[in-house]
Structure formats: structure tokens, C-alpha cells
């Protein structure tokens, strides 16, 4: 199954975008593929799918440092919407930073540049972080204890 939680095989879901064989046809497809790229630590794809105006302040090195520090474990799409100029995807992405489970709740803003969807920026909502003990259930919902799964 694909990392993005679509319940579709990755080879027909996000990988064709990440590998450059296809281009996302919607902001949601781009958002899902960027999440999957974080799971795969494909920082080139993440960097290249930023809007041109945002690439300089989001270096591939800083993206790589974050991607290598954390482990993404789940994605929930909450809502997709659009305005005249932008499309929006609200989501929650869960990741582990050591033994801390972090939920990143964001309303992302996307636009088209040269006919391709690009991530512009996002509004983050505060979420509490949760320290995970070795014997707690793993937050990835595998049914295993944290120490036997992602711990």
C-alpha cells in the first residue's frame, strides 16, 4: 500500500509522481506524493515541488535534515477546497521524532506554475506532542508495542 494512506499500491499512487513518470493532476495528489516522498526521504522531489518563489528559503539540505531526523507514520486528509487563485488541502501528518509522536496539522496552499501543481505554504495549527513509552501501543496503529515496531 502507498505511504499516503490511499489504500492503493504505491506503484500506481504516488511513486509515478515521485519518479517523474507522471505529474499530479490535483493539489491533493501533490500533497499525498510529497508526504510519500518524506517517507522515502526523497528530498529532491519535495524541493522541486515547492513553488518557485519558496525554493530558496526551503533548501534541499534543510529538507533532508528534517526527513532524516523523523519517521512519518500516518496521514489523514481532512478537507480539500479552492479559491480563485489557490487550492487548499487540510491534513494531519503524524511522525515520530525519537520517542515523541508529533501531529502536524496544516492547511496547505497550492498553485499551478507552468501547468504543474506546486506547494506554496501552509497554516499550521497547534497540536500537543506525546511522549511514547516502550510498552505503549505504537502510534502507527500496527497493533504492536512501540518497542517492537518504531521504538
TrEMBL record:
What positions does the domain YchJ-like middle NTF2-like occupy? 26-122
Q: Identify the domain of life.
A: Bacteria
InterPro entries linked: NTF2-like_dom_sf, SEC_C_motif, YchJ-like_M
| UniProt-recorded name of the protein | Preprotein translocase subunit SecA
User: What organism is this sequence from?
Assistant: Pseudoalteromonas rubra
| Native organism taxonomy | Bacteria, Pseudomonadati, Pseudomonadota, Gammaproteobacteria, Alteromonadales
